[in-house]
Write a structure and sequence with these properties.
The chain has about 250 residues and is of the alpha+beta class. It is built from 8 helices and 10 strands. The strands form 3 sheets. The chain has a 6-stranded antiparallel beta sheet. A two-stranded antiparallel sheet has the order 1-2. A two-stranded parallel sheet has the order 3-10. It is elongated.
């Protein structure tokens, strides 16, 4: 095994065994070079493997640290549960506060042309106008996921959905009040590496894959009225489903 791979394997074993815990600082490049009797460039190559795997983060000029993984429990079925009793908290905030952590979010609204993926799911023409409510959600100041909901412009124009503020009754209830209640939702979940835009929005380092959860809401007559795209960094989430045993 080449020396840089041996260095990566040794450090990886220490991380996975817990010998090097979350947030622990690794020995310096010079200390590792002395320990393994190699050049510092060889050490950098080994550390680069761990950074690409998402096990280690580089914090110049301090050094390398074991990545801290404080997962959010993500429940795709949660969007159909009732709104919290306190209007200032949405379901996300309620969940995180119960865990003793501090939630926050940013919301912006834009009028954009439908991409092929969104157009297909909403059964509209490519390039047709859609309203997108973009959220970045944070826990303790760290971006945890993005939540972008797309609506055909004709359905929600001049409504509260167009406002870049939290909707007290929830966007799904507001959509129902506009005459477009959702009867069912199709969930799609797949995994890939992030796009540059996603990495920028979520402040992702190298080697971090994302889960993509797309939820498309339909009325009883089969008309799609909402398509939400959630981007979930793989090192920050644990996905939990609850199913009834029929």
């Amino acid at each position: 095994m080449p020396a840089y791979q041996r260095i990566a394997a040794d450090l990886r074993a220490q991380i996975t065994s817990g010998e090097l815990g979350a947030g622990a600082q690794l020995p310096t490049e010079q200390e590792l070079a002395d320990r393994y009797d190699v050049a510092r460039q060889t050490v950098r190559n080994g550390l680069g493997i761990l950074v690409a795997e998402g096990l280690v983060v580089s914090q110049r000029p301090l050094g390398h640290f074991v990545r801290q993984r404080e997962h959010m429990v993500y429940r795709p079925q949660g969007e159909t549960s009732p709104q919290p009793a306190s209007p200032e908290m949405d379901r996300f905030c309620q969940q995180i506060l119960a865990e003793g952590r501090t939630p926050s979010q940013t919301i912006d609204v834009a009028l954009v042309a439908a991409t092929p993926d969104i157009a297909q799911r909403l059964a509209i023409d490519v390039g047709a106008l859609v309203v997108v409510r973009r959220r970045i959600r944070f826990i303790n100041g760290e971006p945890i996921n993005t939540n972008d909901s797309h609506y055909p412009h004709e359905l929600v124009k001049d409504s509260e959905i167009m406002s870049p503020a939290d909707i007290l009754v929830g966007a799904n209830q507001k959509l129902a009040e506009l005459g477009y209640p959702q009867d069912r939702v199709i969930d799609e979940i797949f995994f890939r590496m992030p796009t540059p835009e996603e990495a920028q929005r979520l402040d992702l380092g190298p080697g971090i894959p994302v889960a993509i959860h797309i939820a498309t809401g339909y009325m009883k007559d089969g008309l799609p009225v909402r398509c939400t795209v959630n981007v979930l960094p793989g090192d920050r989430h644990m996905m939990v489903y609850e199913r009834s045993w029929a």
